[in-house]
Specification:
The complex is a heterodimer. By secondary structure, chain A is mostly beta strands. Chain A is built from no helices and 12 strands. The chains are: A mainly beta, B mainly beta.
């Protein structure tokens, strides 16, 4: 069975602090995709990143970075120098590479960045 | 700027009434998902279509929910009769499935917030 765990329900930080959102996943598949989505207060789900299981290179995009470690089944997300606009719920998700194409989402982490 | 369009954005209805939610996927996408988001259950998959054919609707209560794709530009989710426990945000998403030469992640619509009183 596939499962995504985001143990942090809510995190509060002060603006300009760095913050890491944890994601741990379970799957029996040897190949899979991992994703992060952002849900701002307006409600829509915004795609942030997709990572293939055979690509363990970390990725950086501006203030965002992702650390994928297959050995620990983790795909953590770090925001550097957080801003108030980063306040949102962040979801980690897992998907097979073939067959059933559905996304398995974690329960989300609510990030509050205080001015 | 291509996006998934969902209507209505908000719907308040009385228990027992029929509710139809509509989704226009991004042009060219061949997969469509319906997800339901609640505080208690988080994001749950209700139905998944590929090339307009339903491939997985195991998460959908069959007695009252139905999902269809009458054509490639329209997906519908219907609840009949609606119940207060159906109150949630319903998201539609579309994407390109692997094996099409270029696959993408799922892009989500803004959701339909349904309240059943």
């Amino acid at each position: 069975a596939q499962k995504v765990t985001q143990a942090q329900t809510e995190i509060s930080v002060v603006e300009k602090e760095d913050v890491t959102l944890d994601c741990v996943y379970e799957t029996r598949d040897t190949t899979y995709y991992l994703f992060w989505y952002k849900q701002p207060p307006s409600g829509e789900l915004v795609f942030l990143i997709r990572r293939n299981s055979f690509d363990e290179q970390n990725e950086i995009s501006g203030r965002y970075s992702w650390n994928f470690q297959k050995s620990t089944s983790s795909f953590n997300f770090t925001i550097t120098a957080s801003q108030v606009v980063d306040s949102a719920v962040y979801f980690c998700a897992l998907r097979k590479t073939s067959g059933t194409y559905k996304y398995i989402f974690g329960t989300g982490t609510r990030l509050k960045v205080l001015a | 700027d291509a996006r998934v369009t969902q209507t209505p954005r908000h719907k308040v209805t009385e228990m027992g009434q029929e509710v139809t939610m509509r989704c226009q996927p991004i042009l060219g996408h061949n997969t469509v998902f319906w997800y339901r988001q609640t505080m208690m259950q988080g994001l749950e998959l209700l139905a998944y279509f590929r090339n307009r054919a339903p491939l997985d609707d195991s998460g959908m209560p069959k007695d009252r929910f139905s999902a269809e794709m009458p054509d490639a530009t329209l997906a519908t989710l219907k609840i009949q009769p609606s119940e207060p426990r159906d109150s949630a945000v319903y998201f539609c998403a579309s994407g390109l499935a692997p094996g099409t030469g270029r696959h993408t992640e799922a892009f989500f619509g803004q959701g339909t917030r349904l309240t059943v009183v």
